[in-house]
Every structure is written in structure tokens, then in C-alpha cells.
Specification:
Blueprint (H helix, E strand, L loop, with lengths): L2 H7 L4 H23 L2 H13 L2 H32 L17 H26 L4 H28 L3 H9 L1 H14 L4 H26 L7 H36 L10 H23 L7 H25 L4
Helix pairs in contact: 2-4, 2-6, 2-9, 2-12, 3-4, 3-6, 4-5, 4-9, 5-6, 7-8, 9-10, 9-12, 10-11, 10-12, 11-12
Length: 329
């Protein structure tokens, strides 16, 4: 049954229809920005090493601040939502942390603690390690790698959480389970579009958030007009590229599902949701493109806030459309 018909036919609780998808979509939007949003930081660092221009160093610093903000926002949204809507899982005791059966949840939990600490160390090391660029770069690469590794583990868990063979291995041998999951992922091309979709949405969200933070932080960190012109254009360029890549991945995802899912396990896409899910990213890209082409991108304050809001809304709508059209996918 279609999404809007279900709203009229059943007495559905508002939190199940609107609040849950919006909260989960918002939480995952910030979570992906934290896990995968550090890629533009790495690009800015590499550009600084080649050109030795201070603009790239300051941009990497402020963009990494967005990554940390995304982590705090993700926790603020996901934890209360999970506590309200989902049953609490059993917490492993300290004695059982060394048990191989608990490694499947212990390793991601440790990465979830380590990654924000590394990003915080990277931000704080700008002054302490100003003359030790190699050490600071190593901390930044470690922070990015830990976030990407956590993204890979969570993605594999999402793909294979209902796989009976993987579930059995997770109870007995997590190392073998991870190897089997990676091997199956590499050989199953139908899993690549959703992985690419989530991956590209991370830097796109982080870049859109950075455009907003540049506006809000200008009075606090006044690095000069020329820097903010450079940073606004760089953030808009990253947001434009990764939003386009995420949109292409979303289209490939729906095409692959429509060709591989049996008719009894899918339904016709809701027209309104389909148009909105495709039109909002296009509007975001136009707003980002306007900032890139403008001689004075600092004037695009409304466009920066609007693009960020539309990007978040588009992500929530795309998840709703995906779940509603392919509930058994």
C-alpha cells in the first residue's frame, strides 16, 4: 500500500509516520557527515603541502570542526531516538569484553570513541604541533581512517544483519565473518549502489554544513574577507560534486532494485515522494553552483542555509521513498 494511502486508511501514530523517519534521517545525515565528511579535509591538507598557502590550512581546520559538530549532532539525535523507539540491547560486562563473541560490538564501539577523539586532537594540534606538520597530518589521516573504517563496519552490518551465515559467524568467529562479508560484498554488484549512496552523502552533508558554519563563525574567527571567499567557494564546490555523485548513486540504487526485486516484494513509487526526492537534490546543486560562480559568494547566505536544509530534507525523503517502495529490500 502506498505511503499516502496508508496515512488515510489507518489510524497511524504520528511518531511512526513522520517523527521516526525524520529523526532517523536527520541522525544518519549527521552520522554520515562525521564518518565520511573528512575527505575534503584530506584534499585541503594535500593542497597545502603542494602550494603552501595558509588558506588551505585554515579551511582544513574549520572543515574538521564541522566533522566534530556532526558527531555531536548525530549523538544528540540518534541516542534519544533509539532509546524511545528501539529496545535496549544487552550491555556486555567488563569480564565479557575479551570474549570473541562480543568483538562484533566492541570493535565498532571503540572506533566510535576513538574517531572523535582523533578529530579533536587534530583540531587542537594546530597550535601545539604548528611546526610538526608530519605529526599533525598523521593525526588527521588516523582520524579520517578510523571514521571510514567505522563506516565500512556499519555498512556491512546493515547489509548482512539478517544473513544467517554471517549471524552464525558473528557469534563464533568475527574475523571470519568480516572476511566472508567483504568477499560477498565484492562479488555482489547489487550492494555497490547503496554503499556508494551512503558514502557520497557524507561529504555532501559535511560540505553543506561547512557553508553554514563559515557564515556563523566569521565574527568569531575573522581570517579576512579573501579567505572566506575562498572557503565559501571551496565548500560549495565540494558540496556540488558530492551531491551530484550521491544523486547518481541514488538513481542507480533505485534502478537496480526495480530490476532485481520481485513484484510481490515492491510497489509503485509514490509520485510525490519520487519527484521531491529527485527535485530537491537538483535544487541543492543549483544553490551550490550559484555560490561557486558568484564573484562574491559571501552574499549567498540564504542560499547556504537553504541548500543545507534542502539537502537534509532530500535525504529523509529518499530514505522514506526507499523503505516505502521496497519494504523487503
Amino acid at each position: 500500500m502506498s505511503f499516502f494511502n496508508a496515512l488515510w486508511q489507518f489510524d497511524m501514530r504520528p511518531d511512526k509516520v513522520f517523527v521516526l523517519p525524520v529523526l532517523l534521517g536527520t541522525g544518519f545525515f549527521f552520522l554520515l557527515a562525521f564518518l565520511c565528511g573528512g575527505l575534503p579535509v584530506l584534499r585541503a591538507e594535500s593542497a597545502y603541502l603542494r602550494r603552501r598557502k595558509a588558506f588551505y590550512d585554515k579551511y582544513a581546520l574549520q572543515f574538521s570542526g564541522t566533522v566534530l559538530f556532526a558527531w555531536c549532532a548525530a549523538l544528540a539525535v540518534i541516542l534519544p531516538t533509539a532509546a524511545y523507539f528501539l529496545p535496549l540491547p544487552p550491555v556486555p560486562t567488563l569480564r565479557g569484553l575479551g570474549d570473541p563473541r562480543n568483538a562484533a560490538c566492541t570493535a565498532p564501539a571503540l572506533l566510535a570513541l576513538l574517531s572523535p577523539l582523533l578529530w579533536l586532537a587534530y583540531v587542537r594540534s594546530r597550535t601545539a604541533l604548528h611546526r610538526h606538520r608530519a605529526a599533525r597530518l598523521f593525526i588527521g589521516l588516523s582520524a579520517l581512517s578510523s571514521g571510514l573504517l567505522l563506516f565500512c563496519l556499519l555498512t556491512l552490518l546493515l547489509f548482512f544483519v539478517q544473513h544467517p551465515y554471517i549471524s552464525l559467524l558473528l557469534d563464533e568467529n568475527p574475523g571470519a565473518a568480516l572476511t566472508a562479508a567483504l568477499r560477498e560484498f565484492a562479488g555482489n554488484t547489487s550492494l555497490w549502489p547503496p554503499a556508494a549512496y551512503f558514502f557520497f552523502n557524507g561529504p555532501a552533508a559535511a560540505a553543506a554544513l561547512t557553508r553554514v558554519r563559515l557564515i556563523l563563525l566569521r565574527n568569531k574567527d575573522d581570517y579576512g574577507r579573501d579567505y572566506y571567499v575562498f572557503a565559501a567557494r571551496a565548500a560549495a564546490r565540494s558540496a556540488l560534486f558530492f551531491t551530484a555523485a550521491a544523486t547518481v548513486a541514488a538513481a542507480l540504487l533505485f534502478l537496480s532494485l526495480s530490476s532485481s526485486t520481485a513484484p510481490e516484494f515492491s510497489q509503485k513509487p509514490e509520485t510525490v515522494l519520487l519527484l521531491a526526492a529527485g527535485g530537491l537534490p537538483a535544487a541543492c546543486m543549483l544553490l551550490h553552483l550559484a555560490c561557486v560562480l558568484d564573484a562574491n559568494p559571501l552574499r549567498r547566505k540564504t542560499g547556504a542555509f537553504g541548500a543545507c536544509f534542502l539537502q537534509l530534507t532530500a535525504f529523509c525523503l529518499q530514505l522514506t521513498l526507499l523503505i516505502n517502495t521496497y519494504p523487503a529490500a
